[in-house]
């Protein structure tokens, strides 16, 4: 693998590790420091996602017409500055709920731009024959961060408070920007101004999805499943951290440790698909996940609640 790839890999690891160390930081701050209720925590979680839904498709064509590395660096800097405003306001005693919402929206918009640019930029620093190896390294790093980040972040919150994980998240974005600055690859020629963001781009995206039967079904499935998961996540934060009084480390453990299942699923996916077929594997996995969730929600909170939630999340 080339030196530019390793700088890109370092940037990815830094930003991903920081993001998952800061998992749940905003709900923690809203619940423990600002005494926010379920509606406020849910609105905080939804604000950034709503912006992402509005910007995802039109941002794609815009990023396509611009150099990818500057877009990624700018997104990292914007996310870093936005997040650092939270500990600054907290230290001055002026942190409020509206600021958390604004920072969440800004971070989500920058994240959309970064994700759109990074997917294309990998092809500029990695030879076509090495793309599979490169993506495998990115996936391994991502699942490691997802599995360990919430656990370590929860422990840090228990010892030092929720603000420290926000600072760790901002530091990850700063390190990512510095690593991207170290890459020396001649970019391909693009239009200086790039294509403008138009409503027609959004319409074309919907037409493309609806024209393909399989893609349309997968899209609708993703919408339904993701909506149900995201509808319960902020409420679970209120339930576990507020009503049940779980410490932050236990909350992080419940969401981080089950992601070890991601490693198992990644290893088994190819073999299961080759033996049973893609559609059957998807259907069985979906049914098993639904059954596991039903078991969790039928349980009464008790000493074994954490292990039960871990089993549910692993699906």
UniProtKB/TrEMBL annotation:
The chain crosses the membrane at residues 7-31, 37-59, 71-93, 99-122, 142-164, 223-242, 248-270. Keywords: Cell membrane, Membrane, Transmembrane, Transmembrane helix. It is a multi-pass membrane protein. Its main location: membrane. It is found in: Cell membrane. Pfam families: MFS_1 (PF07690). This is MFS transporter. InterPro entries: MFS (IPR011701), MFS_trans_sf (IPR036259).
